[in-house]
Amino acid sequence: MFHRLLIVLLPLLFGCVTPESNERAPVSTANPLKVVSTTSMITDLVQQVGGEWVAVHGLMGPGVDPHLFQASEGDVSAMSRADVILYNGLHLEGKMGAIFEQMHERGRNVHAVAGGIASNDLLVSERYSGSFDPHIWFDPGLWQQAAYRVGEILATTDSLHAGAYRARAASYADSVAALFEQAYIDLSVIPENNRVLITSHDAFGYFGRAFDLEVHGLQGISTALEAGTSGIRDLAEFVAENQIPALFLESSISPRGIEAVKEAVMARGFNVSIGGTLYGDALGGPGSPAETYRGMLKTNVETIVRGLTRRPEQS
Length: 315
Description:
Layout: H1 2-15, E1 33-37, H2 40-50, E2 54-58, H3 73-81, E3 84-87, H4 97-105, E4 110-112, H5 140-157, H6 162-187, E5 196-201, H7 205-211, E6 214-219, H8 229-242, E7 246-250, H9 256-267, E8 270-271, E9 273-278, H10 293-308, E10 313-314
Parallel strand pairs: 1-2, 1-3, 3-4, 5-6, 7-9
Antiparallel strand pairs: 8-10
Helix pairs in contact: 1-3, 2-5, 5-6, 6-10, 8-9
């Protein structure tokens, strides 16, 4: 109901915002580009690529599920005043699609970070026909493409610092490659029989493809629908039969589903553990090891290695 009401109010909200002149003052550290981003991963990416010439306002903080996020009036006002609006795309921000469309129709500078990625590079959803997996930050090549795209968007918007944005995007892309190379080495210690990642929802498909892990999510790519009893039962049977040592929670999703799977596995005579909490759809909070993209990936890898290298025991 709130979502429908907000869409109806959008024209009124736009009307309350004072139009800015097309002649923007040159960007400087004292007058940075105003960028509004959706997910915390994109917020971190823009900060890394934009550096001192951008001021980023992230709409989604730690622990926020982008699949279910609904923009407030304040969020819409912030987007209306921004020089650039960046969102993930591929239906990740499912409840904000109409807002992005209306922003674009009113001439705002709106871009999907996943825009331009070839469909044959994307994972196709097994549960939602015609949809692609939107969790592109877990694939090194796709996230490098996202970095270059953000660099070009900023360069086009602020031609004065175009060279700096492109250079920072290239440097960031190189750091992503190095980060994934180290993660691959770290994950290689997991025994072959344990290389199965069980999580709250299908956020780790690209992660599994990158690191040769079999991935099973209790919920689908979107978290809009909770898993039913049959899904919990089927996953529990798979875990017990294959003696997977650990299940993993996700920071932005209720633990109830995975805890139900754990109970169902235990009832089948196998002592599975909760291996820890992974960061799937959002980074960690300020001051936490996962507050940046680099920290998030490193933290996830450490948690997975700990969980999947333990010796399973019969209960």
